[in-house]
Amino acid sequence: GTAFYEIRSLDSGFFHGLHSLIPQAHSSLPVSSVCSDELTHNFKGFTVMNENERYDAVQHCRYVDEVVRNAPWTLTPEFLAEHRIDFVAHDDIPYSSAGSDDVYKHIKEAGMFAPTQRTEGISTSDIITRIVRDYDVYARRNLQRGYTAKELNVSFINEKKYHLQERVDKVKKRVKDVEEKSKEFVQKVEEKSIDLIQKWEEKSREFIGNFLEMFGPEGALKHMLKEGKGRMLQAISPKQSPSSSPTHDRSPSPSFRWPFSTKTPPSSPANRSRNESAVTYDISEDEED
Prior knowledge:
Layout: E1 8-12, H1 18-21, E2 29-34, H2 37-43, H3 51-59, E3 66-69, H4 77-82, E4 87-91, H5 105-109, E5 113-116, H6 124-133, H7 135-144, H8 156-215, H9 220-236, H10 269-288
Parallel strand pairs: 1-2, 1-4, 2-3, 4-5
């Protein structure tokens, strides 16, 4: 039959560096070694997470097959043989610690070292630097979330300072919100004012045109006044009869007789002849009777 030989590589580190080393060594069977709190505090520094939390965090990494807990700070041949390690994965930069210029020197000389690429920005020192740099921000953040000043190891004066800064920031935020809303309001007013001005200009042109059409030099009002004046003059002035019209003679006024008198008033020569004829006519009628 065919014999299979499994290659076991050890990702050496105490916690943070393993997250970048493990994926690079996943072609073999990654075995991750994690040091205890005691060794890490002595040779590296104080940790944020305790050893049990670090063990569990590495165990849940998808490329990790096995976690060696409480691993030694310097990997001895006995430790490698006990855990059947074929290669040790770590970045190639010499790691000086525990009185040695490079704790992986003997592994490199034995041909068991598998160099990996170091990921910039992922290290314990970088993470601590971020926390220290923004310490006030994180302290205020946790105070807002209900942590006490004693739990955060914050003095009474700093606690009051953080609360004051928080209030000042809230006021600044409100002022900023008001400024933004004011800008939006002013922008809307400007847009509406532009529309109103345009409409006013259109209406004013229309009004001026109508005014000129009514009251201008040749406007409708002038024609109306001319027509009214002509009609008034025509109604007031009498009509003159034409000179060529025929003249009519006046009919003679009737004669007037005095009652109970046979005398007639003096008359004009023209009427006298008429009267004579009338008398003659009357006498003739008496004769006939």
